[in-house]
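tokens incoming
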């Protein structure tokens, strides 16, 4: 228990230090573009009323969560297929590399034509941007499956399906979760850009509208909320990772002890 508390305090040290530094440095700020932190926090509380949370935050959260779940499903299934088949991976590699390099911003006009403005378009863009880190990490994890365990499973007559479920996927899961953590940043960034360019609601829309009307406090309030959403999303993925990979941590601890 004491170790967990110490770990938590250590993790909070840097954010608290940065906030304190921001508070002190900005306290004498006279420029309207960088107001003091206490003024920003008061504006944050004023901006994010119940009405704003419902009209701006909730749509963004729904698009983000649904798009990320779709990205995980597509990335894991596609990564497993690519990891299991050398021929498939070789044949589709030019296409995957081309799509991975495509900026999401450049796809917004096509997404608008295909899905129209709104949540469906945002979900499609978020899923597209977030699936690639997961797909690549999953494919690498599947390819790195323990050959000794696979050969042992084959000797004992374990079916291919059970080998996939109980040997390949658990072994690839650390890399899958690493890809998911990287994908969170891509998902949040895509959500904000889609809101800014092609939506009439959401966090990105609030920020760009405030910036265009020279409402600096509201702009900072939107940016802070985006940071909070990204941090909460990352924390959620980390908690899921800890739950899914409990066996991995225990195995590593036993390996170190031996």
């Amino acid at each position: 228990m004491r170790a967990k508390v110490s770990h938590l305090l250590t993790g909070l040290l840097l954010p608290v230090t940065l906030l304190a530094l921001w508070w002190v440095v900005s306290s004498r700020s006279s420029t309207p573009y960088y107001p003091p932190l206490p003024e920003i926090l008061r504006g944050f509380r004023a901006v994010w009323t119940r009405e704003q949370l419902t009209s701006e935050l909730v749509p963004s959260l729904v698009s983000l969560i649904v798009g990320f779940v779709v990205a995980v499903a597509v990335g894991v299934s596609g990564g497993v297929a690519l990891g299991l088949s050398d021929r498939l991976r070789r044949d589709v590699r030019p296409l995957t590399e081309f799509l991975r390099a495509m900026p999401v911003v450049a796809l917004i006009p096509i997404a608008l034509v295909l899905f129209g403005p709104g949540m469906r378009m945002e979900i499609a863009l978020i899923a597209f941007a977030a699936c690639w880190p997961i797909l690549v990490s999953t494919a690498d994890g599947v390819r790195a499956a323990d050959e000794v365990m696979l050969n042992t499973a084959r000797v004992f007559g374990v079916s291919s399906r059970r080998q996939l479920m109980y040997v390949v996927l658990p072994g690839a899961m650390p890399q899958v979760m690493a890809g998911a953590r990287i994908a969170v940043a891509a998902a949040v960034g895509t959500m904000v850009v889609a809101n800014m360019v092609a939506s009439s609601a959401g966090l990105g829309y609030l920020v760009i509208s405030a910036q265009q009307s020279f409402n600096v406090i509201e702009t900072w309030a939107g940016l802070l909320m985006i940071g909070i959403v990204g941090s909460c999303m990352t924390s959620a993925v980390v908690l899921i990772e800890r739950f899914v990979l409990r066996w991995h941590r225990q195995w590593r601890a036993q390996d170190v002890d031996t």
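note: The longest helix spans residues 160-198.
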